[in-house]
Amino acid sequence: MNPITHVLLVEDQEIIATVIADLLSLQGFQVSVYADGLLAWEHLQNTAINYDLILLDINIPSLDGMQLLVRIKNDSRLANIPVIFETGIEDKESIREGLQKGAYYFLTKPIQPDLLLAVVNAAIQQKIEFSAMVAKVKRAERPLALLQNGIFHFRELDEARLLANYLAIACPDAERSVIGLQELLINAVEHGNLGITYQEKSRLLLSNRWQQEVAGRLNMPQYSQRFVEVQFERQAQAIRFMITDQGQGFNWHEYLDFSTERAFDLHGRGIAMAKLMSFDQLQYQGNGNTVIATVHI
Question: Tens digit of pLDDT for each residue in 159-170?
Answer without folding.
Answer: 998 899 888 888
